[in-house]
Amino acid sequence: MEKKYIFIDVDGTLFEHGYDVPKSAIKAIKEARKNGHKVFLCTGRNKASIQKFLPIGFDGFICSAGSYIETDNHILIDESMNEKTILELTEIAKRYHIYYSLETTHITYQQPEITQLFALGTTYDQLNSEMARIIENRKDEMKAKDLEDYQGEPIHKFVFIGKSKEGVKLLKDYCKERLRFILFDEIISNDMINGEINDFTVSKGLGIQKILDYYHVPLEATIGFGDSMNDLEMIKTVHIGIVMENGSEKLKRYADTITESPLNNGIHNEFVRQGLIKA
């Protein structure tokens, strides 16, 4: 079979929060690579927060929604946001009581209020996959620190959460034609809205193209797996875009096919259906 280049999102795709990565997914990834295919993580997470998944075995990773890319022991992209842009985004967020975090390559700086919002009575099934990741990061000081500890490191991504629709609209208007603004379509508990912002010059889709250019392979060789709206550019870019059953209903409109949820062995089952591994 022709070698395929497979791109897999992490949160809500490789695994569901509150559970480990399914053994079936680990087995499928290992077998696919043994069969000559290349498998990459393609995630909104920064490099620091994917470390526990790397022992599974991957050929590279697209992190921070395309702002940081590594493969074959080479850094292909390491692009940070403009300092003035970050300052102006934080000013809008503060004015409208929108909480935010700043993601660097090695650490995420978060306002403690983000955790406090969900401290009581909130379970993972009440959160979209990206919000669950933010809450999870707060539990590990190696992944996240308080915003007051930020010392000016380069920022890959600005992540926000709040109730103010007016404030979110101002953030979106500010980004118009300059920055990539992603709003997750699911309203999470307490009527909160969350999303992320990074440079318009980066995305998961552009990151995939960068890897294809590096390996000199055509787009027709690509397959992508995702679940949330920050996977949209990936799903639209790859030759075969696959969305998880537990994923965003809006994202499913762009899918070539829907596979089962991670807990129902969606990665493994679709690898079999795509002919990447044997049943």
Automatic annotation (TrEMBL):
Hydrolase in keyword set: yes
GO MF annotations in UniProt: magnesium ion binding; phosphatase activity
Cellular component terms (Gene Ontology): cytosol
PROSITE patterns in alphabetical order: COF_2
InterPro entries assigned to the protein according to its UniProt record, in alphabetical order: Cof, HAD-like_sf, HAD-SF_hydro_IIB, HAD_sf
Key words of the record: Hydrolase
Protein name (database record): Cof-like hydrolase
